[in-house]
TrEMBL record, chains A, B:
Top-level taxon in the UniProt lineage: Bacteria
Protein name: Bifunctional protein FolD
Keyword Oxidoreductase found: yes
GO molecular function: methenyltetrahydrofolate cyclohydrolase activity; methylenetetrahydrofolate dehydrogenase (NADP+) activity
Tetrahydrofolate dehydrogenase/cyclohydrolase catalytic domain location: 7-121
PANTHER family on file: C-1-TETRAHYDROFOLATE SYNTHASE, CYTOPLASMIC, C-1-TETRAHYDROFOLATE SYNTHASE, CYTOPLASMIC-RELATED
Biological process, per Gene Ontology: L-histidine biosynthetic process; methionine biosynthetic process; purine nucleotide biosynthetic process; tetrahydrofolate interconversion
Enzyme Commission identifier(s): 1.5.1.5, 3.5.4.9
Organism: Thermoflavimicrobium daqui
Endpoints of the signal sequence: none
Protein family per UniProt: Belongs to the tetrahydrofolate dehydrogenase/cyclohydrolase family.
Family matches, as SUPFAM superfamilies: Aminoacid dehydrogenase-like, N-terminal domain, NAD(P)-binding Rossmann-fold domains
Gene Ontology CC, one term: cytosol
């Protein structure tokens, strides 16, 4: 039996961060400090942790960050006004609205307010549409991270059958479009899928993005499949039953250490991309 | 053996047109004539026919139309300028750029110029993104027409396995998103798909959008499948081998008389939608 390759997200993230750091340094030498604004509404502890991690990563790799903290009772209008302010702020190159937001807020409206050229997290419908059409600049970060992992390990995508489990606007859907644009045949499964096991068992590549711990079973997986576990459930448990799937997979991401760290690396990379584009616009205008 | 249901696109189109006509009449009574602007570049005879058909349909159902005819040698900049003019023109509620455009034109750039609220043909990446996210106003017309046919004949979609053959930005891709949003499990196949017959044979619903005459073979189709043939090839031949597939399908669209006529009905409906929205904006502002 051949050995299962562990797809090390930390390693992929490290390589992306190194490139980002060099480019951020160059920008600084030209007087531009790439800057990510993070917006956090309320006091969800997990969200606080994520935002803090992103801020720390910015610091570590030569970006700056602005942290906007709004109270739990913030209205949609207040949040929209704050995002519009950040859209106008020339120091800010990327905007990240940490979700989930409190329930009184129209999250979609808030997302849609983010200017396309600052949507480094890839949450706007316009950005999604551009990515689907093949010319988008900032795909949603986790799907972009998944592609980075596949590419780092030179896993063939063209002609392969990818089964994406989940259809959220920032994970399953954009992952399906990125894979399709790389010439995979793509099946999108979800909570209403009938006979999910049968669909999954036909995959050459499985993208698990369900948000349910150990959801993908070992006996669903055909031998030799590449498994990307994009789930993060409480207690560092993925969407895939890792123990059961490991021996069947030709390659698999661990949890933690799969798409998670690459997601942040992509976010920073996108912010530097946005800063470079802003510089180019200044130079050529 | 049970009888195969013929999904009559003309009948579906007629019903949509009737509703559109009533709504157009109401708008006229309020002083607004819903207006579609068609833009045709060059002298492709098929394109001329399509544009003429659309203009005639407008006339028949109480809409007006403005026909813009540009010479073959039009540049991207000239076309973009014309579209921007139509975006600003308050008499115009919907804009249709007939494609294909001559090869010197950046077709995507021209499409992207169309204002979102006038993109009644559903060609912009932003419109596509909104439709994918589930709140878009104007899905691309042929996919919307396909959904109208399925709904008219009360064909169940939720939980069904839909296989879409083709991934063009105005047909295969948006069709896949509309079906996904209606809770189908969706597989998108295309020219790089390996073992296409195997994928197609698993479908409950086949959407053929390949642009190759009689491409889908009878022995690819499992008994009881619903087949929508969105192909239109020379000589009124669809993408499906109709004779061979007919007896296996539980329901099938004929060519001609399938999604074609419904596409135009949706285009006019969208134009009236856009005019109603413009009226509402005037009333409430």
């Amino acid at each position: 039996m051949s050995k299962t390759l562990i797809l090390d997200g930390l390693r992929v993230a490290r390589e992306i961060h190194q490139q980002t750091q060099k480019r951020a340094q160059k920008l600084r030498e030209q007087g531009i400090v790439p800057c990510l604004a993070t917006v956090l509404v309320g006091d969800d502890p997990a969200s606080h942790t994520y935002v803090r991690m992103k801020g720390k990563a910015c610091e570590k790799y030569g970006l700056s960050s602005i942290r906007i903290q709004l109270p739990t009772e913030t209205t949609t209008e207040e949040l929209v006004a704050k995002i519009e302010e950040l859209n106008q702020d020339e120091r800010v190159h990327g905007i990240l609205l940490q979700h989930p937001v409190p329930s009184q807020i129209d999250e979609r409206k808030a997302f849609e307010t983010i200017a396309l050229h600052k949507d480094v997290d890839g949450v706007t419908s316009h950005g999604y549409g551009e990515v689907s059409m093949g010319f988008g600049e900032f795909p949603s970060c986790t799907p972009a991270g998944i592609m980075a992992i596949l590419d780092y390990y030179q896993i063939p995508i063209e002609g392969k059958h990818a089964v994406v489990i989940g259809r959220s606007p920032i994970l399953g859907k954009p992952a399906s479009q990125l894979l399709l644009n790389r010439n995979a045949t793509v099946t999108v499964c979800h909570s209403r899928t009938v006979d999910l096991a049968n669909h999954v068992s036909q995959a050459d590549i499985i993208i698990a993005a369900v948000g349910k711990p150990r959801f993908v079973q070992g006996d669903w997986v055909k031998p030799g499949t590449v498994i990307i576990d994009a789930g993060y459930n409480k207690g560092n448990i993925g969407d895939v039953d890792y123990e059961a799937c490991f021996s069947k997979a030709s390659a698999i991401t661990p949890v933690p250490g799969g798409p998670g760290p690459v997601t942040i690396a992509i976010l920073l990379k996108h912010t530097v991309d946005a800063a470079e584009r802003m510089l180019n616009r200044l130079v050529y205008k």
